[in-house]
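Try it yourself: sequence plus nicotinamide-adenine-dinucleotide, in.
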Amino acid sequence: MKRPPSPYPFWYRKIPEIYTNGNYSFTFGQTPSQVHIEEQIPSLETILKESNTSSAAAVLLVCDTHTEYITKKISRNRPTCVLESGETQKNWGSVERIITEAREVGLGRDGLFIGIGGGVITDLTSFAASVYMRGAGLCLVSTTLLGMTDAAVGGKTGFDLLGIKNLVGTFSPASHIYMSLEVLKTLPSREWKSGMAELIKTAVLDSAETLDLVKSKKMPFLDGALAREPGLHMKELIERAVLVKGRMVETDPRETGTERALLNLGHSFGHALESAAGLGTLSHGEAVAWGMIRACELGQALGITPPARAREITKIIAAYGYETAAPHSLLKDIRTFIKALEGDKKKKAGKLSFVVPDAERAVLVSADIIGLRLLEQIINGDLQQ
Ligand SMILES: NC(=O)c1ccc[n+]([C@@H]2O[C@H](COP(=O)([O-])OP(=O)(O)OC[C@H]3O[C@@H](n4cnc5c(N)ncnc54)[C@H](O)[C@@H]3O)[C@@H](O)[C@H]2O)c1
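Structure, out:
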């Protein structure tokens, strides 16, 4: 007898405890966190009901000028704090504004902050909620590909200070995170490209099946092409990324072990490129994609990354249209790059470490075993095949 088709893709069957009726349940530290991936924007009533917040309680919606239209679909009459958009707004001034507006609307510890936006808004709102009256309720509506696949999941909050990204922050997960695929229709192509690199990274860290999925979903980063049916193309990949990151964070919620640190694949080289090229010149994803290729070259030189795997990862990144060659066209001075690399804050016991792909996933290697000469060769493109 022919079996009826399973309603779930192959990976759901492996982890039934995480997936029920469109919701993904994780526990980050002691805190349960549910991710809802749906086509449509949730209503305020749904958010209040699911977070067990009384409809009479004070609520503050937080968004930026580009996500205000989404916020209005959630609620037109609840108090809303609208910030300017962009990384430059991820500062103490914005946190103070969120907290001031929460106080003005009488938000108490039974109230709810709802952050609606990309990683900047969700990081800021999550930080404000985590310190407001020693912790108030928090839900997020993530609206960028990078937010859905990375920033909104896992409980890291924060803002930039003294010119250093995320210098101040807390670990404080939202109880509910909503990902509405319809909002991706308005995402500019640059933001798609930024998020896609994190998706490729997740696939490298997960399995050959997920890498195949990334390959099969490849499409151009053109606003028009993506605007037609972004949800249909991306749903499986976003779900997969949420599951992979969620499981890794559950294992190592405060990055005290090595599991969560693996999510930094491509980031040491990528952050250094972002700094050396001038912050804002490249999108985060473009830098991470370039950084993943450098991580493959490093892994190969150390005998950790099999050549065939390095070739496959490089091919996928190139197919998505990222710049892959070294030195990067925007890198004017290798010394600035090395200085930025040495200043990377992802250090363990004061030592710099790199994540490099191995045969199946990736491993963390200490910079102790990597000479400066090797790094220079990689950045100069001497090891490119
Ligand atoms: N907490 C974490 O674990 C974590 C992980 C990765 C990144 N981050 C942080 O995330 C931030 C980057 O996030 P991002 O890339 O989402 O940037 P972002 O929040 O600045 O959003 C990018 C741009 O897209 C606009 N936008 C957002 N949603 C839109 C939509 N649906 N339609 C049209 N425009 C839209 C925004 O207004 C902004 O101009 C960084 O500050 C980074 O540090 C945090």
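One thing you can check immediately is this: Residues 1-14 have pLDDT under 50 and may be disordered.
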